[in-house]
Design a protein that fits this description.
91 residues; 4 helices; extended; mainly alpha
Amino acid sequence: MEKMYLDDEEREIIESIERGEWKSVTDVKAEIEKHKGYARHTLKKDKRVNIRISARDLEALQARAVEDGIPYQTLMASVLHRFAAGRLREA
């Protein structure tokens, strides 16, 4: 059997499961619909914002978006969302 290598997050999840911290959901379909609603509400883009940035920064963002295969506006919104959620980490 091939040895599996896990990162810290994967090990933490397995340990949490082994400690019995995970509970089964009784109504899976209702739970999925509830979380779909959360996602729709969270990801709804209902406000427009105009910002001024340097041409160099915009070109760098556009180039990065091309590398990722996404529109640059989507990349910018994603970065801002992660920052607002406290999930954007410095390299």
